[in-house]
From TrEMBL:
Residues 355-459 are annotated as: Lon-protease-like. The middle region has homology to RecA with ATPase motifs including the RadA KNRFG motif, while the C-terminus is homologous to Lon protease. It comes from the Bacteria. Pfam families: AAA_25, ChlI, Zn_ribbon_LapB. Keywords: ATP-binding, DNA damage, DNA repair, DNA-binding, Hydrolase, Metal-binding, Nucleotide-binding, Stress response, Zinc, Zinc-finger. PANTHER family: DNA REPAIR PROTEIN RADA, DNA REPAIR PROTEIN RADA-LIKE PROTEIN. A motif (RadA KNRFG motif) lies at residues 256-260. Plays a role in repairing double-strand DNA breaks, probably involving stabilizing or processing branched DNA or blocked replication forks. One of its GO terms (molecular function) is hydrolase activity. Belongs to the RecA family. RadA subfamily. Residues 71-219 form the RecA family profile domain. GO terms for biological process: recombinational repair. This is DNA repair protein RadA.
Amino acid sequence: MKNKKTKVTYLCQQCGYEAAQWLGKCPSCGAWNSFTEEKFSAPAKGQAVASRQLTGFSSEVVKLKDIASGDFKRYATNIKEFDNMIGGGVVPGSLILLGGAPGIGKSTLMLHVANALSSSGTVLYISGEESLAQVKARAERLNVKKDNIFLASETNLQNIVDAINKIEPKFLVVDSIQTTYHPELSSAPGTVGQVRETAAEFLRIAKSKNITVFLLGHVTKEGDLAGPRVLEHIVDTVLYFENERQHTYRILRSYKNRFGPTSEIGIFEMGQTGLSEVSNPSLIFLGERASGVPGNIVTVSVEGTRPILLEVQALSARTNFQIPRRMVAGYDTNRITILIAVLENRLNLPLEMQDIFVNVAGGVKIKETSLDLAAAGAIVSAHAGFICPKDLVAFGEVGLAGEVRSVAFCAERLAEAEKLGFKKAIVPKGNLKNLSYKGKIEIFGADSADAAIKFLRNQ
């Protein structure tokens, strides 16, 4: 009998690129010092390749019109923030990846979700990082006491598959994918090969047995999900806690969802009894607004389909360095740099020797460009020393020529602002055409940043 040969390869831990030798920079993703050595057994010449699959998943070839679709049923968790974010509930047979920084609440949220889903079927919770007693202690603190939640402390994928075959759960939680290892691979848990193979196995389990599988994942120091990016392509849904654990409020965002909307967010508050829903985040983010201070203005951002009112803060100070600092929290730093250049060139503001600091209060990270106009107004207010009206909101995208461009969901933004008692709004002039909003807010349509700032100064 021929012996197996050991093959040595080098894999990029960021994207999974394979090389025959160690490389300082990955040719695929450009990451530095990301290659690690991995060894696995390869069959000798003439010997059949052994399959690493533990679960079979295949079907016959049939015509599309002959397939009975049935009802596309979802299982609601009755956690409104979670259900709305993923499209109304979890889909049977789906593979969901939940990522976030250590200690931010991934395991806590999963115990809440497991407790809610246990009303619809058996839940198997696999913990690869904590003992059964530790998970039990957290469950008691969170008041999770359902009878059909099963626990196991295991990292061996073969043993996990055996437990699944024995319990036959409807829902499976794996905490975490980086601690789970395939027994046929010699590489360490958490490496590219292990994460790729174990995730593929859980995908086969989800599809072949119609089990909803939740995979919890670690993040790197850069804030990205640890492991190869192919993991994000394997799963059906990617959920990510995008802020740090130091914040009281946890923001969970959907980055990918094959069965629902993307870019939706769920907002939770961490307390002694776990994560509780925040039904009206606008009130939370505006609850501690500073009054009578220049550099503060309120904007309306749309996250997915939900409008949220946020406070944009800016501070301008004379620099002590040859190159002024531009520090931003909660928004794209490059966008703020562009806005400062527009204010210098189109509005003739002397900002070249000013340190500029911009912050979106509450720890929210805004990705849409509708915050441009509010950020520009906050910077000018901080620099000139005038106070923005407390009952005014501003939103719109600012172009390089200083023009204010239209944004989506203008009517919904204005309606949300009116609910919270705002009286005035600066919006893009292009949005006034065919505007469906018929509320009481006084609207000023700005076609340029200069016009918007002049209106802001005169309030």
